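Below is one such protein, fold included:
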Amino acid sequence: FTRGRERSREPETILKEALRISPSVLLSGARQVGKSTLCLSLENDYRVFDDLTQREAALHDPIGYIASLPKPITLDEIQKVPEVLEGIKIDIDKNRVNGNFLLTGSANVLDMKKAKDTLAGRIIEIPMWPLSQKEILDKAEENIIDILFSKGVKGLKSVDISYENILASIINGGYPEILKIDSARGKSLWFNSYISTYVERDIRDVGELRDISAFIRFYNIIAPRSCGLLKKSDLASDANLSEPTINNYLTMLEMIYQISLLQPYSSNISKRFIKSQKLFMTDSGIFCHLLGIGSSEELINSTHKGDVIETFVYSELLKHIDYSTVQAKIYHYRTNDKKEIDFIVEKGDKVFAIEVKSSQTIKMDAFKHIIDFQNKSSQKVVGIVLYGGETTLSFGDQEQQRYALPLNVLF
């Protein structure tokens, strides 16, 4: 793996295009995913609201502060001073110049209560996630969602990477700093520091947090539930918190990009769908850290192995979907009679039903729920089971396409 240097990032191309066509762009994502590094590569003037002096000036006179800035300007950590959005709106309406304002935030400022004006019609929002495996390996241009929808499964290429190295990559996750640390203890220290410094601090920035210890208790309770259906009443009783508090904590964790709530798939196939969302941690590295998994051996022996690999696949799919030109949607599928498919990815009349298996071998049985879904659906559904083996295998017939794909296609 290439470590300790700058890589090309998929959002870079999207960002440059957005700045060309919109007066303001919000680049938002969790702390330490590389937003500032990407912004500093542009030739904009730069202000960061972690700086107390800048923050005070902006809070004292947001409209005057924005008017006085040189343009084009990058304003980093905008969630700390959402009051300046009003000044930005006024400035854009007086003098609309594309690319004048690049905003970054480690919380989705457009969802914040304090941000009264959402700059509707004046802003493009771009999410930025931790590194995808393709970005880590300098293949940022290989977007697997674009490939799937344009060339189908045959467009995805197997790569030569051992199962051991796949597991090691899953344990690392995608935060750039983790890739520079080569010891298990060093990684554990970094993850601990990340949670206590950034997660706790950003949660305070985005919402009313009266009891930090209750929040940390909640955070540790939800971590092992990644991949599970979101049952708020169970969470409330386990964490000894009220349901409104649980809702508040979940919203805040979503706003700072630490969790993602996956919507259920529903169509006219059946009325028997489970309507619950599915909860995912957004980084498999943080997930493994919270579960106490620090080596491939610990992952192989963990009762959470399947959930960890599914969380990893979800986080990879999320990155590729958000950076793709296709604009596909992703859901989970579950019926009352326990038929379950991990992910349904669809755009228009094209549907991919994706199951994730942690095993290195695969049998026809792995496709049973996909086959049932294919038979019920009026659309053409391509079935995919991602597994730990090394080769692409066809399990389809003349009517329906079904493939076992190695996890290494994500690398």
